[in-house]
Known about the structure:
Blueprint (H helix, E strand, L loop, with lengths): L4 E5 L3 E7 L14 E7 L1 H11 L4 E8 L2 H12 L3 E8 L5 E7 L5 E6 L19 E7 L4 H13 L3 E5 L9 H5 L2 E5 H8 L6 H9 L5 E5 L5 E5 L6 E5 L12 H14 L4 H15 L12 H15 L1
Helix pairs in contact: 1-7, 7-8
Subunit structure: Homodimer.
GO molecular function: ATP binding; metal ion binding; ribokinase activity
Protein name: Ribokinase
Amino acid sequence: MTSGKLLVVGSLNQDTSLKVHVLPKPGETVAAIDVLVSAGGKSANQAVAASRLGAEVSLIGAVGDDEAGTALRRQLEASGVDTSSVSTIVSTATGTALITVDDQGENTIVVAAGANDHLTPERIGDSDFGGAAIISLCLEVPDHVLVYAALRAKRQGARVMLNASPLRAFDCALLELADIVVVNEHEYSALFGELPAEDDDWLTKLAELATQLLIVTLGKDGAIAVDRSTPTPTIHRQESRHVEAVDTTGCGDALAGVLAGELSKGTPLPEALERATAFASLVATRSGAQSSYPSREAFAQWQAEQAYAYE
């Protein structure tokens, strides 16, 4: 398996998270217990998660010429992510996400795209794809940018990973170009129908798609990977670690980012999936998105503690 860097194309947001006892119903006002302002955006989250565990990561995206944009860039650089291809859009606000999190760790999220909507193919250079083994895409930037990036990546021999999130109507060419598709169970159902019950049904469904590897994340139940990149198609099931969730914000991004990072390093799929689900489990016990992502050392220590606990 070829190794190289991970190139992430997509979004950067400033997150404002409000901790509440119960998520508000339509027309209802609830009191916030706590407020956390932190770095976010699905693509930036994935880049940081991958970099924290040792992948070489570059990010293509856009921020505004405001304090939030400056702070996001610094946060990425502090996490080891190459931001040389993050553009600053003049007279434009950086993307913003407003998040509410309840006592069970469930959340609601409202996003204002801001500078993310100003990312264009012209801001993506030829050199950005050099040495990339995997390019990771999500749906928080315009479709024409994603299609352009996917086509460029394919021409240069990189595998394209599409995290079809946050789910919306999108150009079907993205599914046709994607070598790897990552979705949660709700996204899977919306795109492809009912979750298969048997292994043969999973393999039949994958055969209907252009992608070589389908990853379906199942929250506390882990993830399933259906892989036909080998002569004999295989199914990998990975359980999550049992934890008490504090905040699930950024968990899906953490899993997708670590998975992409590990695959870009040449890590075999079963090991990459195990690391990704374990990392996401730990993230669920902390507040925020990037602010909840542990260092490689902290993650290794937590894994060792978990192994000891189950002996």
